[in-house]
Fold this sequence. Notes:
Structural class of chain A: mainly alpha
CATH class of the domain at 141-248 in chain B: Mainly Beta
Order of helices and strands of chain B: EEHHHHHHEEEEEEHEE
Largest interface: A-B, 70 and 47 residues
CATH superfamily of the largest domain in chain A: RNA polymerase sigma factor, region 2, helix turn helix motif
Number of helices of chain A: 9
Strand content of chain B: 15-25%
Radius of gyration of chain B: 47 Å
Distance between the termini of chain B: 118 Å
Largest sheet of chain A: none
Distance between the termini of chain A: 21 Å
Shape of chain A: globular
CATH class of the largest domain in chain A: Mainly Alpha
CATH architecture of the largest domain in chain A: Orthogonal Bundle
Shape of chain B: rod-shaped
Oligomer: heterodimer
Order of helices and strands of chain A: HHHHHHHHH
Strand order of the largest sheet of chain B: 7-6-9-10-3-4-5-8
CATH topology of the largest domain in chain A: Rna Polymerase Sigma Factor, Chain: A
CATH topology of the domain at 141-248 in chain B: Immunoglobulin-like
Helix content of chain A: over 70%
Number of helices of chain B: 7
Amino acid sequence: MNEVTDEAVFNAFVRGDVAALGILYDRYGLLVYRLIYRMLNNAQEAEDLTQEIFLSLQVNAKFDPKRGSFYTYLMMLTRSRTIDRLRSKTSKGKFWQNIKGLKSSIEPKKLVSPLERASREERAIKVRNALQNLSANQRQILQLSYYEGLSQSEIAKRLNIPLGTVKTHSRRGLLKLRKNLHNLVN
Amino acid sequence: MSGDSQSHNLGGHDLEELLAGYVLGNLDEEELIWLNQQLRSDPSLRVQISELESALTLMSSTLPADVPQNDLRSQILQRLPAKTFAFKSSRWLWIISAFSTLLAVCLGVNNFSLRQQIVLKDNYVAQQQKLVSLLLQPDNRLVSLQGSNQVETASGSLFLSPVSKTAVLALKNLQPLSGKQVYRLWAISQHQKIGCANFVPDAQGVVYLELSTERALSNANSILITIEPEADTKRPLGREFMTGSHSSI
């Protein structure tokens, strides 16, 4: 079944094939986890939210193959849900978040299989190169937006630049990234 | 694919930049309204949105190779079966629900039927008990009733219990009557015929009728049953059907 498209696997899952979700997790589980972990900086919360996201596919999936790949849908969903989680955490003290982050940073990490590492690295190099071809401002703003889930106004405040400039850099940066990654986009 | 060199400037808006802003979620209200109008008029713009979303999400592949400490795959799949079973078995649930409803209706009907039978049995037992208590009374009399001609097959008795002031009329093989016709019981005393009761048989031609013994019935020398054109006639108008006298006891 590993040769089957994501869309077919997803449809099988929607029809009740539990094993299909396992396949989707095998394909994208780590990417989902890593993005959440990068944004929340907390391993336990990243694990919990990863589970929530995959389980939510069963009851509230709005994936439409006509509007993009399953991978894109899943990662956009992941980013959106993680930003929601970040927003809900704003009332919590930074101290406890930092403690949790410190704890997770010293927890042992599992090894990644060589095959997975090679495949991941191949794509990562292409994306990293594409990001390097952006201007420093474009790259920095996109990374703050995507990896940390910061709003445009939060980025403007952090970088001490006008909001309009942030928007312009982020939009042009994304357009340029799409051009640079045209072989990988969808 | 559309590159940044292919930007379109429409009405002061750069379409491609707004599409990127849409994906990044940083459009202001005016920009969002304008772009939504463009999306409605040109659905193919969704393709560009899809490409921009794809490019943005590819950034995930540059993240460090962190892995969860727990087996998330197993944990996710362990939490799935109940819901998935519900999804897979929705048709079965529907069938089971329908079957259960049908079964409940059948049991309800059966229960009602049983209750009806119990009521009938209770009535029958009460009837028998009442008869037994009447038989135990002193000075009871029994009037045997016979058809007035050889053709009639009807038969029965009138049981009189003066002490309990009760009479019971039991007949069988009575023919059903038409129209307003009724059977009428008369008490005959000193050549006077006094009407006591009207009755009709059940579907099996049986009559079981309890009466309170009036003076006329208690003092009667003989009993007459006629077929009357209507109920409560003051004197017999129809033909005689059955007769009996105390002398036959």
